[in-house]
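for the writeup, i need someone to sanity check this before i put it in the appendix. the sequnce is what the collaborator sent (i think, or maybe the updated version? ugh). structure was predicted straight from it, no edits. if anything looks off just tell me and ill rerun, i have time this weekend
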Amino acid sequence: MSLSHFLLAAVSGTALVAGLALPTLAQGPQIGVTAAVNPAAEGQPPSAPPRELRVGVNVVVNERIVTTANGNAQMLFLDESAFSIGPNSDVVLDEFVYDAKAGTGKIALSATKGVFRVVGGKISKNTPVELKTPTATIGIRGGIAVISVAPDGTTQATFLFGTQMTVTTPGGTQTVQRPGFTVGVPKRGAPPSAPVPATTGQLTSTVVALEGKPAPPAVAVAALPPGGRPPEPPGGAGPVGGGGGSRDSDAGSAAPPMAGPPGDAGPAGGGGGSRDSDAGSAAPPMAGPPGDAGPAGGGG
């Protein structure tokens, strides 16, 4: 599997949820919303019983998200960061601080097991999104990364594109700036491995875990340079939004086979809209809640 066609699958879902209404900071500890979900995903807010996650359910600071073998979920945070959670995962949304006017803040997550994808939004432009595992702390600055955490804490982090990814343990830090390179941490206290190109097997297993299906067909494009952008999907679909829109998130294109938010069919967009996550464009058909299928649209 080439990096280019893995990116088409790895950054999926963010275009679909781009127009989803988000709660405001005035609503208290709410930090985002469940933007897409498959069965068997559960959230437990602090001092509250577990609840089934559904599209449109708000998530809060310190909420624990758990999925079973059939579960997937995607969170869209207030700064338009997207956080995808694969099957058999366990993660806590530890910290979310966001100054909407300045576009700054902090996102901190901690995972004990599972497969995860981080797509940076406004916060990651200045401050890395931080995900802690039993063996490492991963920082993602202005880009996209996928992280796999085995039940014994073994961690594998793969940088897809953007500014950089760091992997830190008591034994040292590795910094990755080349898309498609991966770093592993085999046990507690061990230093992170030197960055190496991710194998086809690693990329494929991550796609299957996060999307529940094989990666899309390969696309003939040149290799991405450090900080490069992923290719657009086949068929000439362009970026989200019509003329005059700006893009400030770190995501790509195709959407996963998850239930999506209401919206009109077709890519999100309209003349003059602005976007502040690193998301891309067209999404394939997917099942959604009542309403027209497809990504939310609208002009700004």
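Confidence is low (pLDDT under 50) at residues 12-28, 215-247, 252-275, 279-300. The chain has three helices and 17 strands.
thx in advance!!
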